[in-house]
Specification:
Helix content is 40%, strand content 8%. The chain contains 11 helices and 6 strands. Helix 3 packs antiparallel against helix 4 and helix 4 packs parallel to helix 11. It is globular, with a radius of gyration of 20 Å.
Amino acid sequence: MLFAIGAGPQVVAVDSYSYYPPEAPVTDLSSFSPNIEAITSFDPDLVVVFYDPGDLLASLQALEIPTLMMRSANSLDDVWRQIEQLGIATGHQMEAAELVSSMQQRIEEILAEVPEVSFTYYYELDQNLYSATSATFIGQVLGLLGLENIADAADEQGYGYPQLSPEYIIDVDPDLIFLADTLCCGQNLETVAERPGWSALSAVANEAVVELNDDIASRWGPRIVDLLEVAAAAVAEMAARG
């Protein structure tokens, strides 16, 4: 988000999981066990935090270092709000507003080209068959395409990320499969087809297994529009087959 609004030159350090875009600075700062001394060694004017293990914010505030808490987005409205907050905090309010507007326009254009469908889908987070329901951020994004999420009925705890059984997936037989474990775990149409009983799934037989970039799928920045575009193209292709 920071680079997308023109604040890239102001970024002096990032955590080890923030490696996009390529021009972002490379550090070994931990995301989940942040070290105050390591952070303050960069003499930051602002620290953007997405996770507080318990004392990070308090420690930064004790040192009178300005902080901005940016928790995981639960909706696109959260994304718009966070981009605008970053724009204000970094002096790029106009660029932030332009980014939000361009993202919203792209989404409108994508959705305008998507036919009305009633397809079901399975969204795979990893090989243990964890999925994401419509209540999650990614589920809401895919829900814009008019798809039905098979994980919704299996989320008995209401956590949003249920683990599905192979039997359940085979029984429900989704029309589409979205793989968000391609880069991390090497999953693709071929590996899915090799799973016991999965070759008979409609999505596999129709080659409607969509290999997503899981780095994009796991984040809520500007590239989420790219993911929506890929998913929309898959839906349009399925609809065209009749």
